[in-house]
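Hi X.,

You mentioned you wanted examples for the new student's onboarding notes, showing what a folding record looks like when two proteins sit in one file. Here is a clean example. The first protein comes first, with its sequence line followed by its structure tokens.
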Amino acid sequence: MKNRYIKIFVIGCLAILFYNGCKPKDCHDDGTCAEDYRRMPLGEAKNYLYALPGSYWIYKNTLTGDLDTQTCTGFICDTIISKGEDLAKYITIEYERIRKTSFSSFNHLEYYDETRGYNASAPRDLETIFNRWSGGNNIQPFFHPFIINTNTGNGASTTTCKGLDSALIIQGKLYKNVAIFNIDLDGVVEINCKHPAIVTTYYWSKDVGLVKKTIKDCNYSWELIEHKIIK
């Protein structure tokens, strides 16, 4: 009889241990919960935007024949850590950022380019939004992923993805994987275009950058005729 009670006791202890071992542990009970850590690399977008100082692009005006050499004068690609809290959950976001400065020989302007950051307290889906500042104005002439008819904007203008051409010939040269964006109100100054509301289309080629900019209201384009990319 005594041995029977001992067996029942042992079996009961084993059952309790088995139950506790299989029961999911809640990390909030003992404070071992890890932060939600997210990595946001630039990915494919990086191939369209990366160019070190000394890189240049020479564009030809299809109406006047004028040339514009845009030279990269500054470039930084770094990793930023953003910490925050969203819906009572601690979040850490690690994201890549590109900042670039270039100078236009024709418009006599500097362009300040930067990929948009991520706020861990207001997380958004993985995407790359490219901002360009010039003369106090800001536009977003590029974003990724390339989903047709998706939009981004800065409050004053809207940028729409019009598609991705696998191959496009410009000034007799072939460019591949060309992403196309429309801007309904382009604030970047064109010194020989006096139209008050400039509608433009930007063409970006993988491993090259901007290969064409069409200013619809002034009936001309800037088309790439020569370039040198340093990576």
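Then the second protein repeats the pattern, sequence line and then tokens:
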Amino acid sequence: MQWDQTAVFWTHSVTPIVVGTPIAVLAVGLLNKNEDGKKRGMYLASTMLISTVFSAGLKYSIQRKRPFIAYPDLDQVVAADTPSFPSGHTTKAFALATSLSLAYPKWYVIAPSFLWAAGVGYTRMHLGVHYPSDVLGGMILGSGTAFLSVKLNQWLNKRIEKDWFFDGKKSVDDAYQPNN
């Protein structure tokens, strides 16, 4: 029972973290008048939007029943009223972890981001609302949308012939130089 409460807390951390992180990065970029910080915040936000749209589209296209519906003996610890595949929580967590890792390629960003995302995936199964394949699908979809978002930003930069968007090429150290 104690682990159930921890799992519920962990799984409910997704929305505040995936909404708050892009806002915080963007706000710091705006406050510091740092163009690269603003681009990274917008990149994180666009990744979250893209991952949410793709996840919802797949959920309602596939219409997979939740494990607690297919197997009534399973305990459902948290509410879930949408179809099962892919795990939306896992998709968003891995989209954020991957996009943070691309925007800030340092071990102290990458390791905690992916540990948190993996924990989210595990809690979705532990709480009886997802199959392992739902979580795996969310991991792949979330990571894929982060890479798609970088490619989209690179294409937009090339198309408008100005670096208005995060291009995934600058290192984090370059973003905090005084001339940026």
